[in-house]
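USER:
I wish I could look at a protein chain and see how it folds. I am handing you a single protein, as its sequence and its fold in token form. As I understand it, each token names a local backbone shape. I hope you can help me see how the letters and the tokens relate. The protein I mean follows directly.
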Amino acid sequence: MVEEKEMAMETSGKEEEELEGQTHEMAGIPIVPSDLKTKKPGLIFVLERASLEVAKVGKSYQILNSDDHANFLRKNNKNPADYRPDIVYQALLSILDSPVNKAGRLRAVYVKTDKGVLFEVKPHVRIPRNINDLLELCLLQKLSITAVGKREKLLRVIKNPVTQYLPVNSRKIGFSYSSEKLVKMNKYVAAVSDDVDIVFVVGATAHGKIDCDYIDDFIANPSLIHQDLAVLKAMDQKLT
């Protein structure tokens, strides 16, 4: 059994900048055909507080998760329940496989980790169907994934803040357990102007809340996966 060593420090801000200029290209992955030429308003997702923390376990760097690293986390005074990369994985599957994305109306997906590392996922990427394969690709100290046969970066670390990548005229909507504004998603989305891009900010964490000062409105919704499905269904009705 591989000896567990002390937890490595999470990627620092300085290291994040180095990543952008000195990324290591990994094996290409296929892209999904979609109608990318549409100029109509669309949808952007920001997944906040994703659990994608890297640590050195034994001789290799790994993304920590509660199933495989529970003992390691407890020995380092960490709560295994906080390490759930499967949450952001399931969210990405729902978003990228949606009819909205296939219709070319998904503009972008941004993921910000609990430690503040921001990366972009292109809408036309087909992510691996096995979470362990995705975690291997997502090791942040070597993150730069290209399309098969192309030079386009499909998944890459980018500079904070995420607001610099959001359309100026977009409406930014966050989900919060503490919000008293319970809405029917299809009616809420339908009320947004047709010439405005919609940005949904979702907490990709098992518990806790998102605290983002750029959000225009907070609404209540029960869980991350339910949020994604409700949003995508409503957007499909509005945009397609």
